[in-house]
Amino acid sequence: MNRFLPRHAWDRTLAIILIALLVAFCTLIPGFYAGFGGTLAITDQFLPFGFVAIGLAVVILTGGIDLSVGAIASLSAVIMAILTKSGGLDIWLAAVLALIIGAILGWLNGIVITSLRVEPLIATLATSFIYTSVATALAGASPPYGFGKPFGVLGNGTIALVLPVQLLMFIGIAIGFSILITRTGFGRRIVMVGYNRDAAHYAGVAVPGLLRKVYAISGFMAAFAGIVLASYYDAVRPDMGNILLLTAITMVVLGGVSIFGGEGGILGVTLGVLILGVLRQGMLIAGFSDMVTTMLTGAILLVSIAAKNLLSDRGFGYGALLLRLINSRKQEATPPNT
Amino acid sequence: MSAATMDAAPQRRRPRREIREITLLVVTVAIILGVGIVKPGFMHYDNLEFMVLSAVVLGLIAIGQTFVIMTSGIDLSVSAVMGLSAVVFGLASTTVHLPLAAALPLCLILGTALGSVNGVLVAWVRIPPIIATLGTYSLFGGLTFIVSNGTQVDQVSNQFARFGNGDLIPHLPVPTPVLALAAVALLAWFVLNHMIFGRNILAIGNNASAAYNAGIPVKRTLLFVYMIAGALASFGGLVFVAYTGSATATTGTGDHVELQSIAIALIGGTLISGGRGNLAGTVIGSVFLSVVITALVFLHVPAIWYSAGEGLMILAAVTLGAKRGAAR
Fold first, then answer.
1. Are residues A119 and A102 in the same domain?
2. Do the beta carbons of residue A96 and residue A155 sit within 8 Å?
3. Do B305 and A259 touch (CB under 8 A)?
4. Is A39 within a domain?
5. Is pLDDT at A308 greater than 80 in this prediction?
6. Are A185 and A320 in the same domain?
7. Which residue range forms the structural domain that includes residue A301?
8. pLDDT band at A337, cuts 50/70/90?
């Protein structure tokens, strides 16, 4: 597929960037290093993006896109809050129901895409409008807040005093999804559909059914992010998920997943989440405004794809040329006998 | 593809396109009459003028979006360009008394420059359009915040206001922006149907590598298309600030004009997969969307349901349009 970029080279590059970033921020930004636990606690502020990114990565691996993740996160969180505040349900039961509702909303996206044959971009754009309206209508003028201290553990809690609950959940989910994508038939079929949908179809993959499941997974993860956000803020708002989309897409693409599908892995996405999250929080701690960090997110989105294209022989000509030059130099430098 | 299917396709397509335009017109008129009977204020001249003017802004931007979608691309940054232009020229008109004659070319230059960023990213750096324009959306949007620096445009000079609301030709009650939209639409129609550039756009949208092999300058054409989209979005922003007299840092992006412009193009009959566009449908579609949104306001439908209505409209437009061309 790509002779000049060996497998995992992008993941390795990301790992180096992440370490460099952490070292640089700890030394350069006063207040970034606040003890081991303090620095780990920073992850609480960006991991909701990461939960969305992992679900979104699965969709993008099939060559699709899900623009409704933000709306699903908001709607699920609002439904959870209403079930527990007005319905009197136990908060944890309400959260589980909200996760199921998120999966159903995602599955509806899949139905629109596969049965009505609407492009994923347009279908999820349209459903995001609808979900947002429903969330706003349900939340009403004064959205519920105050879910009790035990529930707050999900967003703010730590285990053994220093390990944030969110980080542990994120690592667990990332490992689970990584196994799902690389070690199960379902995961391989997901990548196959993204790599060549027609070939997958002729190889006997039931593409529509698979896509419906994939969008349900994305909806489930979006709902999970919404619930974690509700726990973190101890409140819900019908627009709380809006901020998730752009950053989550950037994380996925930064993680090396091709927007055309069929290429990339969860390890890369995990690193993409950590890099972008650390960078954003570092900038905010250093005193840059939210607007500047958002602009930076946009710039990183563009630069990361440009860099990948530079390194790939399919893309930008000069970069491939440069790498070819470097490669040929290496071959000359090594004696043929060794 | 055999010669028979190629011959048959245009014949089957032509009546379909007209049916879509006529249906849209009939539905639009029906909504105006229906709501007008229930709420007489809806048929008042002022309201009709308001609907037409907001349709002009949407229409200008949607025409640019139609060009981009015809190349099988998409431009999410149009709303940010519109907002930036509205803030820059709104502020310039009040603070440094920039004359309209200078603002017009400057606004086209600004839009073209911003659009060329998208064009270079898409054509040369080969970033997929949705990602490239999502990135520039946040870049341009951030720029708007920096330029406005927390202030907002409350009022524009008389010259701007006359351009926004006044009539160009005496005794003909047609606001100047409507004439501008008509001129732009005619020009766009001419470019698309009677110039090589326009045919190249459709060829690229149908099959970019085939177009490349046929000797079409794909990269240059894409660059120009994104420049056009930027210029029209910027012009839309100027018209917006001229007729409303106000603009904030969230103008355009706050109302999701980028999504509205995509919706209009699709409602008008442009294929999201590219290669086929319908400019007349886009113009009528912008009037339709403007009328629908205003009708919802008049019928006291809570504002929270507007976006759901837009979502349903997009789904309806796409599923009705995609029935024949079922290919993904």
1. yes
2. no
3. no
4. yes
5. no
6. no
7. 291-331
8. very low
pLDDT score for B148: 85
**Minimal Cα–Cα distance from B19 to chain A, Å?**
21
Within-domain flag for B43: no
Residue B305 Cα, gap to closest chain A Cα (Å) = 5
Chain-wide mean pLDDT for chain A? 86
Instruction: Write the DSSP assignment of A157-225 as a string of letters.
Output: -EETTTEEHHHHHHHHHHHHHHHHHHHSHHHHHHHHHHH-HHHHHHTT--HHHHHHHHHHHHHHHHHHH
Residue A201 maps to which CATH number? 1.10.3470
Which pLDDT score is estimated for B301? 82
Q: Which residue has the higher pLDDT, A327 or A111?
A: A111
pLDDT of residue A331: 53
Q: Are residues A184 and A50 in the same domain?
A: yes
Q: Which residue has the higher pLDDT, B19 or B146?
A: B146
pLDDT of amino acid A92: 93
Domains in chain B: how many in total? 1
Decide which of B19 and A163 is more confident.
Answer: A163
Residue B44 within a domain: no
Structure confidence at residue A177 as a pLDDT band (50, 70, 90): very high
Q: A306: pLDDT confidence band, cut at 50, 70 and 90?
A: confident
> Distance between CA atoms of B90 and B233, rounded to whole angstroms?
15
Residue B24 forms part of a structural domain: no
Contact at CB, B306 and A133, closer than 8 angstroms: yes
Smallest CA-to-CA distance from B156 within B105, B85, B106, B108 is with B85
Residue to substitute from A295, A308, A310, interface B, most B β-carbons within 10 A: A295
| Residue B324, pLDDT above cutoff 50 | no
Give the position of tokens 């190629």: B6
Q: Nearest Cβ partner of A134 from B128, B136, B308?
A: B308
Nearest CA in chain B to A311: B125
B141 interfaces chain A, CB cutoff of 8 Å = yes
Residues A141 and A213 in one domain: yes
State the residue for tokens 């819900």.
A236
A97 and A89 in contact (C-beta within 8 Å)? yes
Point out the residue among A259, A298, A309 whose CB comes nearest to the CB of B137: A298
Interface ipTM: 0.75
Top residue of A301, A313, A316 to mutate, by most chain B CBs within 10 Å, is: A301
**Is A130 in contact with B311 (Cβ distance < 8 A)?**
yes
Beta-strand ranges (E) seen in B17-174 are none
Could you tell me the residue range of the domain that residue B103 belongs to? 56-322
- Judge: A129–B127 Cβ closer than 8 Å, yes or no: no
Distance from CA of A268 to the nearest CA of B (A): 18
Instruction: Verify that A214 and A315 share a domain, yes or no.
Output: no
The answer to whether A294 contacts B273, with C-beta atoms less than 8 Å apart, is no
| pLDDT range class, residue B1, cuts 50, 70, 90 | very low
pTM score above 0.80: yes
Question: Do A185 and A282 fall within a single domain?
Answer: yes
Confirm whether B39 is domain-assigned: no
Residues 6+ apart with CB under 8 A from A317: none
How many domains, in total, are found in chain A? 2
